Amino acid sequence: MTANFPVLKVQNLSRVYPSGDGQVQALVPFSHTFAPGLTAVVGPSGSGKSTLLNLLAGFETPTTGQVEVGGTNLTTLGEAARADFRLAHYGFVFQNHNLVGILSALENVEFPLALAGHSPKERRARARELLALVGLEGRASHLPGQLSGGEAQRVAIARALAGNPSVLLADEPTGNLDTRTGERVLALLQEAASAGRTVVLITHDRDVAAQANHHLNVRDGVVSLGEQGSLVR
Ligand code: ADP
Ligand code: MG
User: Fold this and answer.
1) What is the pLDDT of residue 179?
2) Residue 193 sits in a domain of what CATH number?
3) pTM higher than the cut 0.85
4) Long-range own/partner contacts, residues 205-209 (CB < 8 A, 24 or more apart)
């Protein structure tokens, strides 16, 4: 069963960075409606993939254009409103899991729920449920340093799903993992996507990209729609 999550849409979105005396056009203006499901973003290093993701998240301010989720224009929200909006609608998974080192796996998953104002009892129950979902109910009290890379990344996914986000953004989440562990992480992202979420996954790995529902190619800041076949050059 898929839920009706709000749609992620960008219009005329671009980003220029100052660079010495000149400028870098990290992202050339583009418009796109992200379909629900898993979208793989592929492109060489330095092509603008992370810039795109940071713009989608509202971590970066666009030079032109806007990012909309369910009709709300992220770009025009103030800093505090944007943080609240992110908490309510987004989940993030990074290449390095970014878990809080002094909190247990369970506490890490609880963290965004605490920020969102859930009661301790409620958030503990939800965090346990999420750890079970990623197959780590037996690691609840482990600190991040006591987990393998793949386990830590699965905790990060559980944390990212805590707020039941409509948009899940992942920047090279399998980049540091061996193939089998990477597949497990990918399967969790696919599961999140098949529930009707918009999952945007940056990856260097063609095998990973091949399993996505939709494809975007980025080259020198230019985003184009890609078919699976066109990924293989
Ligand atoms: P990718 O994630 O595809 O490797 P990025 O989006 O990180 O690429 O970078 C795209 C381009 O923008 C690169 O040329 C990079 O050097 C430049 N860039 C990225 N972030 C900044 C920044 N904060 N300041 C200046 N230039 C940046
Ligand atoms: Mg990057």
Assistant:
1) 87
2) 3.40.50.300
3) yes
4) 205/174, 205/175, 206/42, 206/231, 206/232, 208/40, 208/174, 208/182, 209/40, 209/42
